[in-house]
Amino acid sequence: MSFKDIIKRSVLESFTKSNLTTTTVCVTLGITILIALYIFIVYYLSTRKTFYNKTFNVSLAAIAVITASIILAMQSNLAISLGMVGALSIVRFRTAVKDPKDLVFLFWSISVGIICGAGLYEIAVISSLIVTIGLFALELTPVGTANGILVVNCDSLDAEKQIMEIVRKQCRRPSVKSRNASIAGVDFVIECKAKEPSDMMKALQALKGVSGVSLMEHDGEVNF
């Protein structure tokens, strides 16, 4: 018997002698459901309410159970495993993930299904606890305040020097991003990070020729 025949025989025996019983299936899916519910709760608690997506959260729990079922089916029969590989290779997911944090939960759910389907329940539980601790611990780390966008409406370009003098007193390294001139007046768009936004806006409003001041903040990239 050649080495190739030995490998082929061992692979076939690993599928034909699979001890997959009804009890094994029920235990595996039961543990997977419990961990999936745990992921559901963690996602609900760790996601901001304004960005919470219940449909995505329900999908996370379902993905874990479905993945575990696929792994169990692949263990029971060689033909099914090869068919699953072929079927899953042509699947294309086109749903856009808006928050990068959702990718963590998506891979977490898939990995739990794979690990539980393989019967390694302890790894699934321990890894889930570690991921949870890591998520909440990293949420407590402080981050810098993002730069704001200051829009000043005035009647002429000559007011830029006075405007920037006031802005520099309250901000470090302000930058004029845009100057828009029209018949109605001139709009200055300035990127800045104000120490006291209210005091800066009051000082700008007191300038002669300034008709309006707007300060907008965002939750995008942070500059330290």
Rounded to an integer in angstroms, the radius of gyration calculated over CA atoms is 29 Å
Poorly predicted residue ranges:
none
Terminal Cα span: 68 Å
Summed up, the helix count is 8
How much is the average pLDDT? 79
Q: H/E series, N to C?
A: HHHHHHEHEEHE
Helicity level, as a percent range? 55-70%
Total count of strands: 4
What spatial order of strands do you see in the largest sheet? 2-3-1-4
Strand content: 5-15%
- Kindly name the structural category: alpha+beta
Largest sheet entry: 4 strands, antiparallel
Plain-language structure description:
The protein has 224 residues and is an alpha+beta fold. It contains 8 helices and 4 strands; from the N terminus they run H-H-H-H-H-H-E-H-E-E-H-E. Strand 2 (175-182) and strand 3 form a beta hairpin. The longest helix is centred in the first third of the chain and has 25 residues, at 22-46. The chain is elongated and about 90 Å long. It starts with a helix and ends in an 8-residue tail after the last strand. The mean pLDDT is 79.
Task: Indicate the topology.
Blueprint: H1 3-16, H2 22-46, H3 54-76, H4 78-89, H5 100-117, H6 121-139, E1 148-154, H7 160-170, E2 175-182, E3 185-192, H8 197-205, E4 210-216
Antiparallel strand pairs: 1-3, 1-4, 2-3
